[in-house]
Amino acid sequence: MQISMKCSIAIHCLIFIYEAKGIAKVTSNLLAESTGCNPVIIRNIISSLKKAGLISVARGTGGAELCIKPSEITLYQIYNALEPDGLSSLIGIHPCKDRKCPVAQNIQKVLQSPYQKIEDSIKETMKNITLQSMIDDFHMIVN
Amino acid sequence: MQISMKCSIAIHCLIFIYEAKGIAKVTSNLLAESTGCNPVIIRNIISSLKKAGLISVARGTGGAELCIKPSEITLYQIYNALEPDGLSSLIGIHPCKDRKCPVAQNIQKVLQSPYQKIEDSIKETMKNITLQSMIDDFHMIVN
DNA sequence: AAAAGATGTAAATATTAATATTACATCATA
DNA sequence: TATGATGTAATATTAATATTTACATCTTTT
Fold it and tell me: Each residue of B108-129: pLDDT tens digit?
């Protein structure tokens, strides 16, 4: 499992939703058009963000809106909303526990601490990146 | 692209090579047996580690040995040996630059800084983890 | 000098994971 | 009730990984 395009698409959607506020109703088709991916992919991502409480989506009439101020939405929240298993699925370990070799039997335990450190550092970094900062960057780049 | 099993397998091999020193000749078949994966996979990983100067492999007669002290081999070196594109391939961005939407046109630039921060933090963490520390952990667990 | 046992790689295949599509039930407003 | 939207399951497609096969090459031993 990687930090997949889903995360990038989600950020794209959130910025779009923010920018479109008061201008246009943000439907999954509109987001699909902007991101270049399928409406169902969008609906799934949108659905995850909704479950995480980051956005609200009007059923029937349609349209997505932010529930929380961009300054209070972190990249970690976004990532976590999308990946139910979180960062623990980021790094793969080969299965070899049932072998005779003592290295094989213990490699999983040996790797646990280093990999945990990596996950923790990603988590910390993600927590320090807000949607607001990305929106600010967007405005900076556009103007 | 993820931080794949290759990395775990490489660490497995390096610990094995260290532990086997003076006891057995470490061939790709032996490593394949211990890790549970194919000898060709092992030979490819071993080849990468060799190119990175971490180990030396005797041609013909066979057998791998560490070239550098475990305390001077970092997880970052190991990872980099295996992934030619490095961490920059870790996080995916959806292609949408050719669209009319201003968000689509600029999302790539917006994402660059956050993703760079994540990569840097992984890099820093990996640099602080040595093969020696993992070998120490291994001994601690076994005894 | 040839046999044995290794590595080094290319190429073909198989497997698995990620992404996209189709289809349809459900919902809310005009 | 027609329209345009969301929600989600099932399936198909594509791309990334891993495996296998095959064989050239290398070095020591006999």
Answer: 999 999 999 999 999 999 999 9
- The residues that bridge with A55 in the sheet, in sequence order, are A66
Residue pair B111/A11 in contact by the 8 Å Cβ criterion:
yes
A127: tokens are 């927590």
CATH (residue range A5-142) = 1.10.10.10
pTM greater than 0.85: yes
Q: How far apart are CA B101 and CA A51, in angstroms?
A: 27
Question: For residue B94, what is the nearest residue in chain A, using CA coordinates?
Answer: A5
- Note whether B107 contacts A: Cβ–Cβ < 8 A: yes
Residue B23: what are its φ and ψ, rounded to 5°?
Answer: -105, -45
List, as ranges, residues 49-68 from B with C-beta within 8 Å of A: none
Q: What angle do CA A68, A73, A78 make, to 5 degrees?
A: 115
How far apart CA A120 and CA A122 sit, in angstroms, is 5
Write down the domain spans for chain A: 5-142
Taking the Cβ of residue B104 and every Cβ of chain A, the question of whether any pair is shorter than 8 Å is answered with yes
User: Which residue in A has a C-alpha nearest to residue B17's C-alpha?
Assistant: A103
